[in-house]
Design brief:
The protein is mostly helical. It has one domain. The chain has a 3-stranded antiparallel beta sheet. α1 packs antiparallel against α2, α1 crosses α3 and α2 packs across α3. The N and C termini lie far apart (about 30 Å).
Length: about 120
């Protein structure tokens, strides 16, 4: 199996974790776990390669919420920084199945915020 799909997904998600100051050992461990699980998934369904990066991002997002709780800053990764006022809320990946071309979208306004891997820029 060609691991470049997994390596690319890891790099994109790590970039977004670091952009929001969550490139911590705990978060990176969750990312590594998500990549390992998706590597198996990709081995079962090679045609799913265009979906891997978005699915890894969703997996990490869910794992952070499970680990830290949905009210903690870490559990809301990534927090929307575009909306002013109102409650703190997160972004989510669209399309819902993670790809192709996953983007972060504000869960409140529906506005596209950034492609996966580009939260810092």
């Amino acid at each position: 199996m060609d691991d470049s799909v997994i390596f690319r997904a890891r790099a994109l998600v790590l970039s977004d974790l670091q952009a929001r100051a969550l490139g911590t050992p705990d978060s990176v461990t969750l990312l590594e776990d998500a990549c390992a699980e998706r590597r198996w998934w990709l081995g079962q369904w090679p045609e799913g390669a265009p979906f891997i990066a978005g699915l890894v991002a969703q997996d990490v997002q869910d794992a952070l919420a499970d680990r830290f709780g949905r009210r903690a800053k870490e559990g809301l990764w990534p927090v929307c920084t575009r909306c002013e006022g109102g409650p703190v809320h997160s972004l989510h990946i669209e399309p819902d199945l993670g790809g192709p071309d996953p983007t972060w979208v504000c869960e409140e306004s529906g506005a596209v915020v950034a492609p996966l891997g580009a939260l810092g820029g």
